[in-house]
């Protein structure tokens, strides 16, 4: 008898990675159109949990209107003698994986940012109640993580109730993150890796260190350690740090070896604390993107919830597309909010001194971790909406990057005549493991690119700052 007897659709690992486009969806739960949504796991006393119980507070799927988006909270309560509150984050992250096992049911992101879709096809097959989804989750959690003795699932769609619990959930996430702060990368000899997102980005492996929280913001180093110990064959595993090859960029021989092995040779080197060279790969679940702005030689940061366009004229979705997919793209870097609170945050690139623009909402959240003298020098959408406004703001506030501009102009003027033509010796002029080119509405990605040229023309661009000098 199948484990999933009575479930109207198929359930299995083959459905992981399945995308449901808007035109194919029956309903959407959470997602960008809904402010309040969450998923949360709590460890409870055995008497507080009724094993196998699935409750629905608010409308069930069958009462929802086709094509609409609804708020959703998923609350999973578990009990078992070996369960500790430290395991809540780890169990919670599995909701993503197990929901994606259900045919025609897509789950993206995590915590306060969940985005689910049910396909029309699966709805027509009879998947019209959260009861079925709860039953699948119960079966999968209990068979994969035997440490869970009792489990009950509650789906909340009543908007008022979702709102109330959403605010509580935010406090619980913050308390979890705060617990994990303080430990340094230098103080441990193991990091943890996670390949849960390889179903969407096959060349992605998260390297979770005490000071580099996972990209999704849902797994700390402590969570990684707990996950690897309760489920040694699961997606989270220990990484021996090995030799420290570069303390500033954050290169470790053990991390390189693991990345190579887990990505079947696609990624051979990872620099943990930089967005250039061999940056940590980005799957698609990152909470935010640090994007390089060449005009000011600084970084902008945008988070998933930011609805407007960023200061460089691009929305989150476009910046995320340039970043995601398990690649190492210079200057496009998937990050978690918690990593922004780390002293190792973009350390090799200048850290906060290199950040020039950030949405106000995120700035408020991480304000206490930005060096005090820089807080007023980093623009938000209220200070700058365009690159020109950003330049003016940075100059007016005397952001440290402005000094950098002066040095660069002097260096360029000394080194380069207005136009120089250089005959090239044989051999490539550019080599890059991944080189994205955007042309005529298409994006072309060159792998292991080597570009040859007979001549290189270097022409000085007359920028505002060079014209003035
Ligand atoms: S973003 Fe990273 S840590 Fe988070 S689930 Fe995906 S692979 Fe794991």
Read across the widest sheet, the strand sequence of neighbours is 4-1-7-6
Helix content: 25-40%
Number of domains: 4
Globally, the shape reads globular
Number of helices: 12
* Distinct bound molecules: iron/sulfur cluster
Category from helices, strands and their pairing: alpha+beta
Question: Biggest sheet: strands, sense, closure?
Answer: 4 strands, mixed
Low-pLDDT stretches are 461-469
N/C terminus separation? 80 Å
CATH superfamily of the largest domain: Bifunctional carbon monoxide dehydrogenase/acetyl-coa synthase(codh/acs), Chain M, domain 3
| Broad CATH class of the largest domain | Alpha Beta
CATH topology of the largest domain: Bifunctional carbon monoxide dehydrogenase/acetyl-coa synthase(codh/acs), Chain M, domain 3
In terms of DSSP E residues, the strand content is 15-25%
Number of strands: 21
CATH architecture of the largest domain: 2-Layer Sandwich
What's the gyration radius in Å? 24 Å
Mean pLDDT: 90
Structure commentary:
The protein is α+β, with helices and mostly antiparallel strands. It has 4 domains: 13-178, 2-Layer Sandwich (Bifunctional carbon monoxide dehydrogenase/acetyl-coa synthase(codh/acs), Chain M, domain 3), CATH 3.30.1650; 181-277, Ribonuclease HI, Chain A (3-Layer(aba) Sandwich); 287-323 and 350-409, Bifunctional carbon monoxide dehydrogenase/acetyl-coa synthase(codh/acs), Chain M, domain 5; 416-468, no CATH class. Helix content is 27%, strand content 23%. The protein has 12 helices and 21 strands. The protein has helices at residues 88-99, 120-125, 130-144, 159-180, 221-230, 253-262, 316-323, 360-366, 372-375, 387-397, 400-415, 464-468; strands at 25-30, 38-43, 54-57, 69-70, 73-79, 105-108, 115-119, 150-156, 190-194, 206-208, 236-240, 244-246, 251-252, 288-293, 298-303, 332-335, 355-357, 419-423, 430-439, 442-451, 455-459. The strands form 7 sheets. A 4-stranded mixed β-sheet has the order 4-1-7-6. The protein has a 4-stranded mixed β-sheet with strand order 2-5-8-3, with helices on both faces. The protein has a 4-stranded mixed β-sheet with strand order 16-14-15-17, covered by helices on one side. The chain starts with 24 loop residues before the first strand and ends with a helix.
